Fold:
Amino acid sequence: MHPNKITITKPDDWHLHLRDKSALSTTVSHSARAFGRALVMPNLSPPIITVDDAVSYRERIIAEVPKNSNFQPLMTLYLTDNTELKEISKIKDSEHVLGVKYYPAGATTNSSNGVTNIEKVYHLIEEMSHLDIPLLFHGEVTDHHVDIFDREQVFIETILNPLTERYPDLRIVLEHITTKNAVDFIKDQSKNIAATITIHHLLYNRNNLFLGGLRPHFYCLPILKRDIHQKALIKAALSGNPKFFLGTDSAPHTQSKKESSCGCAGVYSAPAALELYFEFFENNHELDKLEGFASFFGADFYHIARSKKTITLEKNKWRMPKEFIFEDESIIPIHADQELQWKITEN
Ligand code: DOR
Ligand code: ZN
Structure:
């Protein structure tokens, strides 16, 4: 059966980069088109380290939410070696902060203030486990002798696996997973441990990075892997297992910062992410699994109510613009100048 019109519970994006200041006028409206809520990453420069930082960042985001939208940003704190224990305790009383993001120092964009050694933050993780605050991982080791395609797998073996034994009650999200190793690890763990899956890691593999030349707009971290890993992610997303849910990792960078001799990591997917997840589930004949993945499992994991709103998409072709304006420059979105099959019609 191929329905031409589908209404589902309004989805949430459980991993999103909105940036700050003038960027917000572009990024917020793109996500608010499709998602009811989004978990906003804290890797600004300087990062969002305290609950007060998160509350004022949230207000700057809310100021850019289009009038006809009820989009709600949900906030995260950026863990550093020097994060104070009292900030972790404050999260429990905060309405707006849902979790703490762990960037290994040097792993990705704006991660230089990240954690240099997990042992330095054991006391903070202990408190998160005690207060039942989710810890969200950028799961890659940063040692330069480890091959870039192996960094997620080595992180799981050397950091994450021991951590789950040390803190069995800690709720963990392994963000934007890219390998079969990650899928297998998540499936083997308790229900405390979940993962987000991006649309670009479902649609592409590392060949896309080099198709006829170097393709900087496919460069993201963790980097795209070979097709056996892509196939494992596809199977996980389509499986209906609630440990796997939607997180776009939409990560905007200007065209000049992507098309550079040292290009930034990130795929700007927000302008088409939901439509592409629809297309992906449809092409794999599993459209009935989409609502769980996009609208239920993440909310359940974070212990917040599922959305009561809906969104309707119709089979109706449209073309993604070649570019958008972002920070007074241009930004190239995913699927730029290509056709999309599904269109949001009611929201
Ligand atoms: O590709 C990425 N871009 N991966 C990340 O982990 C960070 C993100 C960004 O902030 O640009
Ligand atoms: Zn991210």
